[in-house]
Amino acid sequence: MPIFAFMFKVKPLFGSPDYGVAASGYACVYVCDDVPKRAVDKALQRVKDEGYRYIRTEKSGEAEITDSTPEEQRAMMSKAEKHGISSVFVITPEKPGLN
Fold this sequence. Notes:
By secondary structure, this protein is an alpha+beta fold. The chain has helices at residues 36-49, 71-83, and strands spanning 3-12, 22-32, 52-63, 85-93. It is globular. The protein starts with a strand and ends in a 6-residue tail after the last strand.
């Protein structure tokens, strides 16, 4: 089954641990699914479930593990193969005075 990789620009929502301390960030989500549309839906649901608002898609497509795949990405893809989905959120702290 193919693995789809998505990078979304996201914003923390009220209730998220990053709300009030981060302006925005990126969600990297890997989804194992046969149907691309269903993979997108699962990835966007993960973003919502984690307490973030989707802003835009930065990158998306079918992912493949190769010899040059970085170790962290390889681990995320392996987790997606086992559990159907995996994700990591990289948050950018607020800059003082910009609120």
